[in-house]
Amino acid sequence: MLKGTGASAGVGIGHALVVKEQNLDYSAVQFAGQQQETERLKAAASAVSQRLSNMAAEMTEKVGEHAAEILSGQIMMLNDPFMMGQMEEQIAAGNVAEAAVDTVCQTFIAMFSGMEDELMRQRATDIGDLRARLLKQLLGLPDVDLAHAPAGTVIVAKDFTPSMTVGISRENVVGIITEIGGRTSHSAILARALEIPAVLGVPGAADTIQNGDSIAMDGEFGHVYVNPDERTLKDYEARREEFEHQRQMLKAYLNKPTVNADGRAVGLYANIGKPEDAQAALEKGAEGIGLFRTEFLFMDRDSLPTEEEQMNAYRQVAALFAGKEVIIRTLDVGGDKEIDYLHMKKEENPFLGHRAIRYCLDNPETYMIQLRALLRAGADHKNIKIMLPLVTGLEEIRAAKAMLEKAKKELAAEGLPFDANAQVGVMIETPAASQIADLLAQEAAFFSIGTNDLTQYTLAVDRGNPDVASLYTHFHPAVLRSIANVIKAAKKAGIPVGMCGEAAADPALIPLLLSWGLDEFSVSASAVLATRRTISLWSQQEADDVQAEAMNLSSVKGIQGYLASMIKK
Amino acid sequence: MVSKMTKIVNPMGMHMRPAGMFAQEMMKFNSDVVLVFKDKEINAKSIMNLMAACIKCGSELEVRCTGDDEQAALDKAVSLIESGLGE
């Protein structure tokens, strides 16, 4: 099995069509004089522009205006008088039109690739695409024609350029596999818009996979099977059917408000681990970010990320979700998350040890960088909320808030813009926090229940240990009472309470959460629509009845069985 | 030459869509339109220059227009920027 980045969910089964890169070598082209080269350049630009316009029109019709914007962007770049002027200057200096295009595009590619802003870095891909189109036109090379690919084609290419995307349709192309590209690349966005499963960033795919190979791929998990055996194929066929069924059913819930059957609105947010995930969350209809884990910034590197680096990552998400809430959890290291350069001590019981807020408060120089970055990142949109992990007592909230106040003073003194009113809330994930939720509410502006750790700590079960993992369940009455207690305390104190653990998307638990009055459900992007649907199926009265009945039961099996039987299909 | 200070208000700043729209609108005028941002002069008719300048939300900049329709160009530029560049 080959592995890459799952960039567009869905299961694809078909035969490979390997798209080889064309040779764009122009060293044999002779300079034909300034006037003639300029004319060739202009003719090529106008032909490419015309072609792109046709594609954009086709694309708008096929997948909507938003996806076609990438192409209209390329047309505008192509018609940029400044860029054209630079190319003409290259020709005036004695270069052939091909060299003029190449040199000027490469300069812009280098410029945009070096930018901090992810969105701007993607422009480098556009210019690269434009360069290839212009060179192909000038050299008289044919376009790769994917429009006539036979039904059941899985396209395999080094990179999937926006212009390649245009020729294809769901009718004939069932999957896309590339060697480069990630979840936020154009290819990914377009593949999602076309609803074609895509696995990107599979090293060596275009060499390993041969034309005509049988392919089974999963665009959610990033798995690719080349010439799979009978059993795998059967398995994938079943999954494809299930996936398509779900997709059709859930489509009705896109861009709809999240309301229960009585029309009462609740918040439906997404959990993300990287700024890049925010785009997918938005596309899936998330109304905010309920948990932005920040560990990714600290992992897979040799030194602490700088304040600027952190700020840019946070700000990117804040900008994408402007006008909506973005809850960012401060560094949750320790436990099972090790970061070498922090030189944390080996511990006997890492989950009961020096982790998360404990580590951060004891290492103020590290923590301060993050707090400053968070405050600064909120300057533009004032939508960032700060969430403290693994809190067990009021002292921790007070200590963190004191550091934040200090950070604000520093930033003000330095004249840097920041959000002076950023709210500070608590992730409720220890039995201690749940027990004293009423006390924590004095200092916390909001709660978010982290059911994964709360379950593990409440039940004293390591879910990674196969011998006890079966004991790990959020249907244990101790966990349920704990959740109810937290929600009740928040209601009494008048602060919002959400849930960002996996349990928030569990259709068996949702009626209980609705009954208790959970304000905000934060789930993985892929679970947003299904959760919205589940919420819409329950009236308050029904949820209350099921909740009362479930809480009257005393065993895990009894509760779990009852709630499973009440799931609304 | 006429000029005016203004401020970018759309959340994402001068990325592709607003930059493209702005450049296209500016191309309709005969006058030269230049944005002065962080002491750099940016050709407002060039989407590439506009994007390359990394102008973020909240950035203050000066619009300078020179030519036979300079006042109309300036008014249009400032009103586009202040209304959030279509975002």
Q: What this model shows, in words?
A:
The complex is a heterodimer of chains A (569) and B (87). Chain A has helices at 34-63, 65-78, 81-92, 97-113, 118-139, 162-167, 186-194, 205-208, 230-251, 277-283, 307-320, 356-362, 364-377, 394-414, 431-435, 437-440, 451-459, 477-493, 510-516, 528-536, 540-552, 556-566, and strands at 2-3, 5-8, 11-19, 153-157, 173-178, 198-200, 214-218, 223-226, 267-272, 289-292, 326-329, 384-388, 424-428, 447-449, 497-499, 520-524. Chain A has 569 residues and is an alpha/beta fold. Chain A folds into 3 domains: 29-139, Orthogonal Bundle (Enzyme I, Chain A, domain 2), CATH 1.10.274; 153-251, Glucose Oxidase, domain 1; 267-566, Phosphoenolpyruvate-binding domains (TIM Barrel, Alpha-Beta Barrel), CATH 3.20.20. In chain A, the strands form 2 sheets. An 8-stranded mixed β-sheet of chain A has the order 1-8-7-3-4-5-6-2. In chain A, helix 6 links the parallel strand 4 (153-157) and strand 5. The mean pLDDT of chain A is 91. Chain B has 87 residues and is α+β, with helices and mostly antiparallel strands. Helices cover 36% and strands 26% of the residues of chain B. In chain B, strands 1-4-2-3 form a 4-stranded antiparallel β-sheet, with helices on one face. Chain B is globular and about 35 Å long. Chain A binds chain B through residues 69, 72-73, 76-77, 80-83, 108, 111-112, 115-117, 119-120, 123, 126, 319-320, 322-323, 379-381, 417, and chain B through 11-13, 15-17, 20, 23-24, 27, 43, 45-49, 51-52, 54, 56-58. Chain B: InterPro entries: HPr, HPr-like, HPr-like_sf.
Chart the SSEs and their pairings.
The complex is a heterodimer of chains A (569) and B (87).
Chain A: E1 2-3, E2 5-8, E3 11-19, H1 34-63, H2 65-78, H3 81-92, H4 97-113, H5 118-139, E4 153-157, H6 162-167, E5 173-178, H7 186-194, E6 198-200, H8 205-208, E7 214-218, E8 223-226, H9 230-251, E9 267-272, H10 277-283, E10 289-292, H11 307-320, E11 326-329, H12 356-362, H13 364-377, E12 384-388, H14 394-414, E13 424-428, H15 431-435, H16 437-440, E14 447-449, H17 451-459, H18 477-493, E15 497-499, H19 510-516, E16 520-524, H20 528-536, H21 540-552, H22 556-566
Parallel strand pairs in A: 3-4, 4-5, 5-6, 9-10, 9-16, 10-11, 11-12, 12-13, 13-14, 14-15, 15-16
Antiparallel strand pairs in A: 1-8, 2-6, 3-7, 7-8
Helix pairs in contact in A: 1-2, 1-3, 1-5, 3-4, 4-5, 11-13, 13-14, 19-21
Chain B: E1 2-7, H1 16-27, E2 32-37, E3 40-43, H2 47-52, E4 60-66, H3 70-82
Antiparallel strand pairs in B: 1-4, 2-3, 2-4
